[in-house]
Write a structure and sequence with these properties.
The chain has 733 residues and is an alpha+beta fold. Helices cover 29% and strands 24% of the residues. The strands form 9 sheets. Strands 11-12-9-20-17-18-19 form a 7-stranded mixed sheet. A 5-stranded mixed sheet has the order 1-2-3-4-5. β3 (61-65) and β4 (71-75) form a beta hairpin. α2 packs parallel to α3 (129-156), α10 (379-390) packs parallel to α11 (417-429) and α15 packs parallel to α20.
Length: 733
């Protein structure tokens, strides 16, 4: 991820530095006697004072203060359950000295001002929100606070140094006067905000670091929070799509006679993505779609089967790949080795399987404007894609980002497949239409975490020290051929393919990682924890195999190899202590331990599991420790870790997309299950108190779950886990 961000900064540096630096914030009057605070991140942009009605946001407006003392923080990121609608307001409110009980959030429009300052795209992903916004949003709040102080000084004719702020008020102790931010809003209009306001010393934080309740929680409970599926436009139609069963296949003939005659069906339209059936309601559209008689041209379709692909990948293991990392002298270490370990690991395709089906609502009536409502992680990309299909400029497409019922990376598709399909339908219908992909369509139609094959080899000397380590990987590239290729792929290496493998923290003097990048038409995409979802397993379980093979405590082996990695070591020690590693678990229960870094955070995981003689697997408890630097809201970090454990367990136990002559065999939660509530183990999580810069929290917890469970199984059975999912080898309880 660091490599990708560095590339982003280099590619965009020219355009960023060309922006105006004259203002960091611009105050402008709004109806009701309030102020609007606008800023561009990370660079400075001048704003234009405008009159605007309540709830209307300028493209560069992030903070609103109204006369009734409400502070509204405009959030440019997508809320997917991870809590950005609380985290970002906390950052602003901390430096504002705001009254947290009077802080609320509002979803930002799709506009350049709301781009992720590290990615230069309005994109939520990569566990980057807190990393990217920690300082900029604090600066925004600090600048507002200084404006409030200046407004009070102007009103009371006192020196600003004699004033202080507390809980949404400016206070003048000498005269025993105070005023709320709302009362001072009119006085604040026209005051030039500071470009580089002074930030608080973290020891004085009152909001950051507190386990505050989510701002959006009640709206999700009472139904007032709107998800993509909730979007409604009067007169709206519903569309579903029939697509070829093979990736790369085409529909060659359509007989829609029966479908068109069915009740409530408005029309059947051929689009580049398939055949769209449009009706007055979903059930009518689905029944009519199922009544279509279709013929396919499969000549160019992908016909690979999972077993064949696995054989191809295994064959690649005997061929040298493109070198991603090479240090030391592998051959010399191998010639002088006392002991050698080698292992192959296979990982199947995985799908995101979000609970909310993919959908997009478009109101386009043939003019020069359109409006879109979506649950999307990439509103800017979807806006541009819709505009391209409709023949409009991006600014002519208003895209409204709604709450998301699960994203995991699927709603930031590099092919923008959902919005493009919806836009083609809207262009044909020219009436408000909501396109819905049923879950089986999404599971069977892509996109996927790519399947992967690893071969690892290590040599040890007579003292049991690892002297060399090689890791050969075969996996499809996520970035190649996409709009992100120039940021992700360098010198033939997709950084998402080798992350977690080329940068292992263990002190091994001779190390080589190389990569094969086979090409298939099966569409692949990042999925929660991305490359770490397979590299962490390969690295950590192979290390466990070595420890088991030489009879060494796996915790102590890791400690010895991490002496030069203090945060890894501290996290490892913390999770070992949390799990009482020095004591034996109850009879029949075994432990596996893992430490892994990703997205700027360090996670230690211990899994307790048991395996009976008839191969019944039970996961009893998961201990998890995360060092994510400053934890803006520890309660939300814990929630993310618990969510990651559920996600990681689902993939480890059940996750598998298989192909039979190119056709996906799974279709819904019945044959692509996720863990149920009764299957969830106990979870104990600790968030490390840290003054380090924030890391991510949405993805780091996923990577360590599967290898920690596999490690426990190794000690329980004596047999390593060489392929996933585990349901093929065990009966899961």
């Amino acid at each position: 991820m660091k490599r990708i961000l560095d590339t982003f900064e280099t590619k965009h540096s020219a355009s960023v530095t060309g922006l105006s630096r004259r203002h960091f914030l611009q105050l402008s009057a709004i109806a009701g006697g309030g102020i609007m605070v606008g800023f561009h991140l990370p660079e400075v942009m001048a704003g234009t004072p405008v009159q605007m009605p309540h709830k209307t946001v300028q493209p560069n407006a992030f903070v609103r203060i109204t006369a009734d003392n409400w502070i509204t923080v405009i959030v440019g990121h997508t809320e997917m359950g991870q809590g950005v609608t609380t985290i970002i307001p906390m950052l602003v409110a901390e430096e504002m000295d705001a009254d947290w009980q009077r802080v609320r959030w509002e979803q930002a429009p799709t506009a350049p001002a709301y781009q992720n300052p590290l990615m230069h795209q309005q994109l939520t992903g990569g566990s980057l929100t807190t990393i990217a916004q920690y300082e900029p949003q604090r600066k925004a709040g600090a600048a507002v606070r200084e404006v409030m102080l200046a407004a009070a000084a102007k009103r009371w004719h006192v020196d600003v140094s004699s004033l202080r702020t507390d809980t949404g008020r400016v206070i003048h102790d000498a005269s025993d006067r105070s005023a709320t931010y709302g009362e001072l809003a009119v006085d604040a209009v026209g005051i030039e905000p500071p470009a580089n306001p002074k930030l608080k010393d973290p020891k004085n934080f009152k909001i950051i670091g507190q386990p505050l309740r989510r701002i959006d929680a009640m709206t999700k409970v009472d139904g007032s929070g709107k998800f993509g599926m909730d979007a409604y436009v009067p007169g709206m139609l519903i569309a579903v799509l029939a697509r070829p069963p093979l990736f790369g296949g085409k529909i060659s003939h359509v007989d829609a006679t029966v479908a068109k005659a069915m009740p409530n069906v408005v029309g059947v339209y051929e689009t580049p993505q398939g055949v769209a059936v449009v009706a007055k309601d979903f059930w009518s559209a689905k029944r009519a779609r199922d009544a279509l008689v279709l013929m396919y041209s499969d000549v160019i379709g992908e016909r690979v089967s999972t077993d064949e692909q696995r054989i191809m990948y295994r064959h690649l293991m005997s061929l040298e790949g493109t070198v991603a990392r090479s240090t030391g002298d592998i051959e010399l270490a191998q010639r002088s080795a006392t002991k050698t370990f080698t292992a192959d690991y296979w990982f199947p395709y995985l799908t995101h399987a979000p609970m909310e089906p993919l959908n997009a609502t478009i109101d386009y009536r043939g003019g020069n404007t359109a409006e879109v409502w979506m649950s999307t992680q990439w509103p800017e990309g979807d806006q541009h894609a819709a505009a391209s299909v409709l023949g409009l400029k991006p600014e002519q497409v208003k895209l409204n980002t709604l709450l998301t019922g699960g994203g995991f990376g699927r709603r930031s598709s590099l092919g923008f497949d959902v919005i493009i399909a919806a836009a083609h339908i809207a262009k044909a219908v020219r009436r408000p239409v909501k396109m819905i992909w049923t879950r089986d369509q999404d599971i069977q139609g892509g996109y996927y975490r790519p399947s992967a094959y690893h071969r690892l080899s290590a040599t040890l000397d007579s003292q049991g020290t690892i002297t060399s380590w090689t890791n050969r990987i075969a996996v499809q590239s996520i970035g190649t051929g996409t709009v992100m290729e120039r940021f992700i792929v360098k010198n033939g290496i997709d950084s998402l393919s080798v992350e977690g493998a080329e940068d292992i923290p263990y002190a091994i003097p001779n190390l080589r990682v190389d990569l094969h990048t086979p090409r298939f038409q099966v569409p692949v995409l990042w999925m929660r924890s991305v490359g770490h979802s397979h590299t962490a397993f390969a690295v950590e379980h192979f290390l466990e195999e070595i420890a088991h093979g030489i009879g060494k405590d796996p915790y102590q082996m890791r400690r010895e190899l991490l002496q030069e990695k203090p945060r890894h070591l501290a996290t490892l020690d913390a999770v070992a202590k949390l799990a009482n590693w020095s004591t034996q678990p109850k009879a029949g229960v075994f432990r596996g331990i893992v430490v892994h870094e990703s997205y700027g955070s360090f996670v230690g995981t211990v899994v307790e599991a048991s395996v009976t003689t008839d191969q019944m697997l039970t996961v009893h408890k998961v201990y998890s420790v995360i060092d994510c630097g400053v934890a803006v809201n520890p309660d939300l970090v814990k929630a993310q870790m618990e969510s990651s454990i559920a996600f990681g367990l689902s993939s480890a136990l059940y996750g598998e997309i298989t192909l039979n002559k190119g056709e996906v065999q799974q279709g819904n939660y019945d044959d692509y299950p996720v863990v149920r509530m009764n299957q969830m183990p106990q979870i104990e999580t600790m968030v490390v108190e840290s003054a380090e810069s924030p890391g991510g929290a949405g993805e780091p917890g996923v990577a360590g779950v599967a290898p920690a469970l596999a490690n426990a199984i190794l000690w329980a059975t004596g047999q390593p886990v060489r392929s996933l999912p585990l349901r093929h080898s065990f009966r899961v309880v």
